[in-house]
Structure formats: structure tokens, C-alpha cells
Specification:
The complex is a heterodimer of chains A (138) and B (286). Chain A has 2 helices and 10 strands. Chain A has 138 residues and is an alpha+beta fold. Chain A has a 5-stranded mixed sheet, with no helix packed on it. A 5-stranded mixed sheet of chain B has the order 3-2-1-4-5, with helices on both faces. Chain B is elongated. The chains are: A alpha+beta (138), B alpha/beta (286).
């Protein structure tokens, strides 16, 4: 099994740079599994977890709030809006953000407010489920 | 020669000034460290997105984005990134001078120029220059946020898309090191990646959802990240230049104080000598 070079950067930090045997990413139209020699692909990401399968059966999880994914046969570049290692996510904060977003959604009347609240809820829900999943894995 | 008291007052006032410049130097030094870090953090994203754009340029999408197409230049747009505050030596002025020269050359070549100004100093300076200012953003503070810039950037990009601007430049200071900042004029649009050698064969991406939406989004992000990077870099330049300017002001004040103290001692000695000779003269007369 070959390896593919992966670079994950966000506006604040270069969070991951290394090799992986497979990358699973939350694409706009559904989750994508990218193995080496994948055909060039360009997509945006929705909030969710990026799963890096590294050598051995080790896995690394990075949570992103959205961004751009570019695939070249030899490398994957992820330009995240904001990225965190999943282990560093705060469960309580995530749950709180989710509840807040739900509240905001109920209260929203104007169209822009509604859209913003929806986007916030999607983000918060994805973050919360990432934390939950992490707990299950442990 | 001025009398003792006058000189003493002057020394006092210069010393006070020196205290202020010294404090400003130290503030600038600590801020510089922080702004430099912010600048470094912005680098990987800006570099990576640039690389991705380079790939996109080589791909062959059905949809030709206006940002990637060259046009005859009738109007040039400039995004000018300056500092909000002064007291940073020739940092802003040197940059403006370079830009003015370029604007003049444009005029000679029958090319119109439009400006988008970032930073209070640029707004101040170009108020007295006969040039078309389309957008301005100032008082971004020491940690500029992308959101504060988006409005002005959008104005320029809309002008570009509508064909009112055929080429877009960004003018900012390049952080070489603490002592040197170099004013630079870089092309933002149309995007022209330098290395077009590799991967010339016909290939294209799979786009999800579709190429137009994606390219619009990515190119927008690209321009934003480049402008953001320039702004952040300029803040680091400002702090470095301010530190150097304030350091030399402090040194100069020190020199001035030395000279004044010399004068003061001379005046004091002259007064004593005069007094003695008066006493001696008086005694002789008796």
C-alpha cells in the first residue's frame, strides 16, 4: 500500500503535514475516501472530521469547520477555515454551542438570521458528534 | 551663549522627550514580536492556497473564470496597504513615493488608475493627490481581521469582474528583517503563477459540486488570504520601522543632551570665572 502526502492548514496554523495511506474527508456532497493515486479532485468541505489513516493501523482525527479540499495524485491539500485536533475539542463547549445554535434557530425570524443560525447549528452539531465519536473510540 | 537656567530647562525637556521615545521603542519592540508571529502563522495558508491556485491554473476547466484571463490594460487597480499611525520613519512615505511614480507612468501610457486604500495614513496622503479612490478601510488595529477587509476587497473585485479594472495590484511593505522593509507592488489579478512547466498535458479536476461555484469560492478565498497576508505583514513592518525610528530618536536625544550639558558646564564656568574676576577687580580697586 502506498502513501499519499497530506497537508492540512488553516488560517491560523499548519496543523498536519505528513504521509497517510488513506484520508477520509467530509466533502460537500458526501464523505470522500482518498487513497494514493486518486484522480485530481476539487471540492469544498462541510464541518466535520478528517480521518487520517497512518502507517500501521494508527488513525488521527482532525476536526475542521469547513474549507477546501484539493486532491492531486501524489498529494492532498486541505485548506481549512479553522482546524483542531479532535482530542482537543471540548465536549461541554460543543454541547453548549449546539444548544445555543438551536435556540438561535428558534428565535430567528429574518432570512439572514435564519441562514446564519442554520450554518451555526450544522457546525456545532458536527463538532458535538466528533467529540462523541472520540469518546466512543477511547 | 544662552544662560544657565535656559539650558537647564532645555535639558529637562529633551530628557522628557527621550523618556517618551524610549517607551515607544519598547512598546513597538514587544508588539513587533507578536505581529511577527501573526505574520508567520498566516504564511502556510497563503502559500498552500497559492499552490492550489497554481494547479487550478494548469487544469482545463470548461468554465473560464475572469480572474484567470488576461485582458488589455486600460485601467489598473491598486490596493494600497499602509499603517494607521505615524512615527514609523519613512515606511509609508517611501511606499507612496514608489506608487506615485507608477501612477505617473500609467498616466503617460494612457492607463487610468483606481485605488483602494487600507490604513489611515494612505487615506490621509491620497486625499491631496488627484486620483480615483474607490474604497477605503482604516483603523484595523494591530490584529487585523479578514472580516474588516472583505468589504473593500469585494468592491475592487466587483470592479474587476465588471471590467472597470483590468489589472489589480497590491502595494505593501515586504518584511525582509527588523532593519529592512521593502515597499513592493505585486500583481494580484489576473492570476499568473510563475511555474508553468510541469503537467502541461490535458487534465482536469473532478469538481464537486460544480466548477463555477467552486472556482468562485476558491479564488475569492485566495484574494482574501493574499490581502490579509499583506496587511498582517505590513503591521509587522510598521512595528519594526517604529522601533528603529524610536531607537534613533532616543539616541539623538541622548546626543543632544550631551551637547547641552557641555554648554551648560561652559556657561556655569564662565559665570564663575566672571564672578572671581569681578571680586579680584573690586579688591584691587579698594
Amino acid at each position: 500500500m502506498g502513501a499519499i502526502r497530506v497537508e492540512i492548514v488553516s488560517a491560523e496554523i499548519a496543523i498536519f503535514s505528513g504521509e497517510a495511506s488513506m484520508v477520509v474527508a467530509p466533502g460537500k456532497d458526501g464523505d470522500l475516501g482518498i487513497a494514493p493515486k486518486h484522480t485530481p479532485l476539487l471540492t469544498t468541505l462541510r464541518p466535520g472530521e478528517i480521518e487520517l489513516h497512518k502507517e500501521g493501523s494508527e488513525k488521527e482525527y482532525i476536526y475542521v469547520t469547513g474549507g477546501i479540499l484539493e486532491v492531486q495524485p501524489h498529494m492532498v491539500t486541505i485548506l481549512a477555515d479553522s482546524a483542531t485536533h479532535s482530542e482537543e475539542l471540548d465536549e461541554e463547549a460543543a454541547l453548549q454551542a449546539k444548544n445555543q445554535a438551536e435556540e438561535a434557530l428558534k428565535g430567528a425570524e429574518k432570512k439572514e438570521d435564519l441562514e446564519q443560525a442554520q450554518a451555526q447549528l450544522v457546525e456545532a452539531a458536527a463538532r458535538y458528534s466528533a467529540v462523541k465519536k472520540l469518546k466512543g473510540r477511547k | 551663549m544662552a544662560n544657565e537656567k535656559e539650558i537647564r530647562t532645555k535639558i529637562g525637556s529633551v530628557k522628557n522627550t527621550q523618556k517618551i521615545t524610549k517607551a515607544m521603542e519598547m512598546v513597538a519592540a514587544s508588539k513587533m514580536r507578536r505581529t511577527q508571529e501573526t505574520m508567520k502563522k498566516a504564511l502556510p495558508y497563503a502559500d498552500k492556497i497559492r499552490a492550489v491556485i497554481g494547479h487550478i491554473y494548469k487544469a482545463n476547466p470548461d468554465y473560464k473564470h475572469p480572474f484567470l484571463e488576461k485582458r488589455d490594460v486600460k485601467t489598473a487597480g491598486y490596493i494600497v496597504v499602509s499603517s494607521d499611525r505615524g512615527l514609523c520613519g519613512g515606511l509609508n512615505v517611501n511606499m507612496f513615493r514608489g506608487l506615485i511614480a507608477e501612477l505617473k507612468e500609467n498616466k503617460n501610457n494612457q492607463v487610468e488608475s483606481k485605488l483602494c486604500l487600507v490604513g489611515a495614513k494612505a487615506v490621509q496622503f491620497f486625499r491631496s493627490v488627484d486620483v480615483d479612490v474607490v474604497a477605503a478601510a482604516s483603523h484595523l488595529g494591530e490584529e487585523p481581521q479578514v472580516e474588516d477587509l472583505v468589504g473593500s476587497i469585494k468592491t475592487m473585485l466587483d470592479e474587476y469582474i465588471e471590467g472597470k479594472i483590468d489589472q489589480l495590484f497590491i502595494v505593501h511593505n515586504d518584511f525582509v528583517n527588523t532593519m529592512t522593509q521593502k515597499p513592493e507592488i505585486k500583481t494580484l489579478l489576473p492570476i499568473d503563477p510563475e511555474d508553468r512547466e510541469e503537467m502541461q498535458e490535458h487534465w482536469d479536476y473532478i469538481y464537486e459540486p460544480d466548477s463555477k461555484e467552486l472556482l468562485d469560492y476558491i479564488l475569492m478565498r485566495y484574494i482574501e488570504s493574499q490581502v490579509y497576508r499583506a496587511v498582517v505583514e505590513n503591521v509587522a513592518c510598521e512595528m519594526a520601522a517604529k522601533m528603529v525610528a524610536m531607537k534613533s530618536a532616543t539616541d539623538n536625544a541622548g546626543k543632544l543632551i550631551d551637547q547641552l550639558e557641555l554648554d551648560y558646564n561652559k556657561a556655569r564656568q564662565a559665570a564663575i570665572t566672571q564672578e572671581i574676576s569681578e571680586i579680584v577687580g573690586g579688591a584691587a580697586a579698594v
